[in-house]
Amino acid sequence: MKDLIRKILKEEVENLSEDFKKSNDTFPPFIRFQLEKIYKPIGMWGQAPNPNDDCDTNVGVINIFPHSEQDVWSVLNRFDTNTKVKNRLKGLFELSGIDGRSDQDFRKWIEDNRDDLFGPNGTYSQELVDLNMTTIVSGNRNEEYAVNELRNKFPNTVIKRFCAGDKRDTRQGIDIVIEYPNKSINIQVKPFVKVDSYVELDGDTFFEVKSMFFEPNKYSERNVSTFMFVNVDEDKYILFKNNKTKIGQMRNHITRFYEPYLYTNINFEESKQKKNSKSLDHINDAFDVKNNTLKNLEFRKNVIEKMIKKIKLEI
Asked: Is 294 domain-assigned?
């Protein structure tokens, strides 16, 4: 019974929206409140138009500093969580000459100077927008590449990419949806630096993806079913299922996927082998573990060959 309760609680935590998970951080709502104070009185506060269910935004700044010519949703709405913007605000605060250095002093300074920082004609508004746009441009480029590759892979299929600020993106982490009659495939797109495949001594294979901006635990399996990693400059992509029991977060921005990829255009010519330390090899020899490993591999080979024949017949 205790195991069942733990399982239910774990699933509930994983399925919480990102907004709720970040609720302990009071800085984002504080920034949104400052923006509302500036833009609501002048009629630039609301939701983006939603003509075809591709654009369901929260309430925020609209019709100024847009993401693109096709959007009305403002880049200002991203200031609440953008690290570059927050760091620049901290730098300006330190240069202001204010005696206090506490978080409360920092927020009081932002509140006192919000029009100059975020206003339509603010001294620093455009600079902060430009800082945030570097992240947006990169993200747009990755998502556009992903959509094009998916359309080539799945022609005559409905593939949706939501507008800037859409709740399904900001709250659930869904960048792209592939719609089928009976279900939808929800995809989160991330850039990657490199991907390597490995074979362990017992015959298991896994993949290591190096991505500087990927945290798998942020995305619940209920909301995001698939991760698509792209490298636009090298024209490469790879997709993995969001299966938490098959994903391991390592150091140095590396994530391991302990199951086969779904699709890729990467040619894995040779898999690297993960070896044990010399001391462990010595122990293995002493207890004849290598002989057992060989038996295990031969058994796995027979089972795998049968599975391959069965799947080929089903296909």
From this structure: yes
For residue 86, what are the CA distances in angstroms to 57, 93, 294? 23, 10, 56
* 23 and 91 inside one domain: yes
| 52 and 69 co-located in one domain | yes
pLDDT computed for residue 286 by the predictor: 45
Amino acid (1-letter code) at residue 249: Q
Q: 115-119, 192-196, 198-202, 260-264: which has the minimum mean pLDDT?
A: 198-202
Residues 105 and 188 in one domain: no
Judgement on whether residues 225 and 266 belong to the same structural domain of the protein: yes
Quote the pLDDT of residue 100: 78
Question: Which of 6-15, 143-152, 271-280, 281-290 is the least confident region?
Answer: 6-15
- Look up residue 270 and give its two tokens: 């040779």
Q: What is the 3-state secondary structure (H, E, C) of 169-193?
A: HHCCCCCEEEECCCCEEEEEEEECC
Cβ 255 vs Cβ 211: under 8 Å: yes
Segment 233-250, tens digit of pLDDT: 999 999 999 999 999 999
- 10 Å Cβ neighbour count for 78? 22
Q: Are residues 101 and 130 in the same domain?
A: yes
Mean of the per-residue pLDDT values for the chain? 84
d(CA 57, CA 7): 32
> Residue 157: inside a domain, yes or no?
no
**Residue where one domain finishes, among candidates 112, 136, 160:** 136
The range of the structural domain enclosing residue 266 comes to: 180-273
C-beta of residue 275 within 8 angstroms of C-beta of residue 254: no
Of the chain, the end-to-end C-alpha distance in Å amounts to 41
pLDDT at 300: 65
72 SS3 class: coil
Q: Cα separation of 280 and 182, whole Å? A: 50
| Segment 213-223, tens digit of pLDDT | 899 999 999 99
Distance CA 185, CA 311 (A): 23
Q: What is the token pair recorded at 285?
A: 């020899």
